[in-house]
Here is the input.
Amino acid sequence: MSHFELAGASGVKEEKQNREYRFENLTLKDLNDIPCEDIDEHLICKSTLLNIRSVDFNLQTLTIEDSISGNKGFGHYIENFTGTCQIK
Here is the structure.
């Protein structure tokens, strides 16, 4: 489930999404490769390049939390995504 909020706007947009995450050698392969750490059965990935992003992938429960905040032409936005993963 994804939550998207534009700071200063009224309300939060909520929608169901399917996302694909690809990890290689403790790196989240994305628009920008994001380095990750393996901490207590979690892959923790953080980046401040372009946006502030934090990803927590629980290797035991296969759940993921992905938070992104940054600026777009229309203002500051915050997006939070939580979901359950399937390994391909």
User: Anything to note?
Assistant: The beta strands are 2-6, 13-15, 22-24, 27-29, 34-39, 42-47, 52-58, 63-72, 75-84. The chain is about 0% helix and 60% strand. The chain has a mean pLDDT of 84. The radius of gyration is 14 Å.
